[in-house]
Amino acid sequence: MNDIKILCIDDNDEIRFTLGAIIETNDWIPILAKDVKEGIDFLKKYNPTLVIMDYHLPRENGIIGVKKIRNINKNIPIIVLTVANDKNVAKKFMEAGAVDFALKPIKALDLISRINLNLRLIDKMDKDQDNQFIAKGISKNTLDLVLSTLETHEEINIEDIEVMTNLAYQTVSRYLQFLENEDLVEVSLSYGKIGRPKKYYKLK
Fold it and tell me: What is the model's pTM?
């Protein structure tokens, strides 16, 4: 993929600078916006390949921004920036139409991994016309990969699916949530060790 343009929407000058530096280091083209309005203007003007969106923005937050982008472009990958303990915000982002998230404070390797994963999904869609987004942020090929792994196991957890599919934890979690919402999987909890119970999934 040539001339990959990545639109970053964040009101923090230092974060925008950091995002721009990470993007340029990987020979991608950064497009930096300070709020949703400017981001939407740049989306229409530059037709970026991918969007990175923060939550806390002036006037309109990132969730509103994602919804506005989805009204313009149904398929562009949108990666959101969120903190590790703010799962409720991450869930709202996904429901609005985001496809992935990266943690703050920003870690270059993690963000690059998230970008590369979504660029590979775009590339697969370009090569295979049957690989459509069958729902917001849900690619048919990736869904088929997760389903095929579920089909070969009575029960399986996210970590094992992550290893077997070579998909990122966040991606596996998103696809399992989609399957759960569609009532296609059963979820059980294991209380084997002290701490949070682990979820196990199986196809219905």
Answer: 0.67
